[in-house]
Amino acid sequence: MAVIPFDDRDGFIWYDGALLPWRDVRVHMLTHGLHYASSVFEGERVYNGKIFKLTEHSERLIASGDILGMTIPYTAAELDEATRETVAANNITDGYVRPLAWRGSEMMGVAAQATQVHVAIAVWQWPSYWAPEARMRGIRLNISDWRRPHPQTAPTRSKAAGLYMICTMSKHKAEGQGYEDSLMLDWRGQVAEATGANVFFVMDGRIHTPLPDCFLNGITRQTVIGLARQRGFDVVERAIMPEELAKASECFLTGTAAEVTPVREIGPYAFVPGEMTRALMADYDALVRA
Fold first, then answer.
1. Any alpha helices (H) in the chain, and if so which ranges?
2. Among residues 112, 85, 185, 102, which one has the least CA distance to residue 142?
3. DSSP state, 116?
4. Is 267 left (phi over 0), alpha (psi -120 to 50) or beta?
5. How large is the average pLDDT for residues 5-28?
6. What distance in Å separates the CA atoms of residue 50 and residue 53, rounded to the nearest whole number?
7. Predicted local distance difference test score (pLDDT) of residue 136
């Protein structure tokens, strides 16, 4: 199937306060965000025309910018309205939203105090992240050679573009080996997350998930923890060592794109999608489409 490039599509993109024809949006090659990763972004989903957890995402974009010393020139309410406007202009019922903020081209060097912070919002049709049959049987992950950095070496509480470089490298290697994704450990050797989703394990009837002390406490992660506790499931947030995966009966990922996706294999460890995973899949699907 032919790939449709993202710079050659019909529709509209919200760019610095105005809707522009999709193909007219241009960024200069000497943009600071391209050279020095001074860029933050969000990923959001549209279900039945409604953007799930929109304000939480808008607030996190602003917070991510603040961590990088970039003041986003819009309030969360203004970003919310711009997102709704973009979804409506593109007639999206079920789709994906990508807000992005970056430093412009006024300065080219490590220091960039005089650069303008630009903001754009794009939205497009989005099917399930995984093929339905793959999602139900569970996906396979390898274990990445790259590790999530110490919070004193990178802005780990920001959804910053630069932090995803090691995710891309990890996922490319995983796919080259026949896996769908990769599990990343942190600098201590503890389980952290997948390349773009948080990870959960069922051990002895309880749900265990790593403490998000060096990676994002995902909005979907928080939502699923809430759904699990509503069902009376015991959720434990703690440090998890990779050898503990041998004790897990179920495993699943959570994220805006992944939603709730069962995992059947991580390296040498095998899991079977079970009742707790399936219950949370159903609860999450019902919530986002409510």
1. 32-36, 54-67, 76-89, 132-137, 165-176, 219-230, 275-288
2. 185
3. P
4. left
5. 97
6. 9
7. 77
Strand partners, 97: 44, 123
What domains, with CATH codes, occur in the chain?
A: 12-125 (3.30.470.10), 132-288 (3.20.10.10)
CB atoms within 10 A of CB 228: 20
pLDDT at 264 over 80: yes
Structure tokens at 222: 């928080």
Pairwise CA distance, residues 25 & 13, whole Å: 7
pLDDT tens for 97-114 read 999 999 999 999 999 999
90: tokens are: 């593109």
- pLDDT value for 28: 96
Residue 172 to residues 54, 98, 177, 195, 243, Cα–Cα distance (Å): 30, 22, 9, 10, 24
Residue 249: CA count within 13 A, CB half-sphere? 10
Rounded to whole angstroms, how far apart are CA atoms 130 and 113? Answer: 41
pLDDT digits (tens, 9 = 90+) for 174-233: 999 999 999 999 999 999 999 999 999 999 999 999 999 999 999 999 999 999 999 999
Nearest residue to 191 (alpha-carbon basis) of 240, 147, 149: 240
Extract the tokens encoding 194: 């997948």
Tokens at residue 8, please? 């050659």
Which of the four pLDDT bands, split at 50, 70 and 90, describes residue 4?
Answer: confident
Return the active site residues.
159
- Note the helical H segments in 90-217: 132-137, 165-176
Local structure of 280: helix, strand or coil: helix
- SS3 category, 140: strand
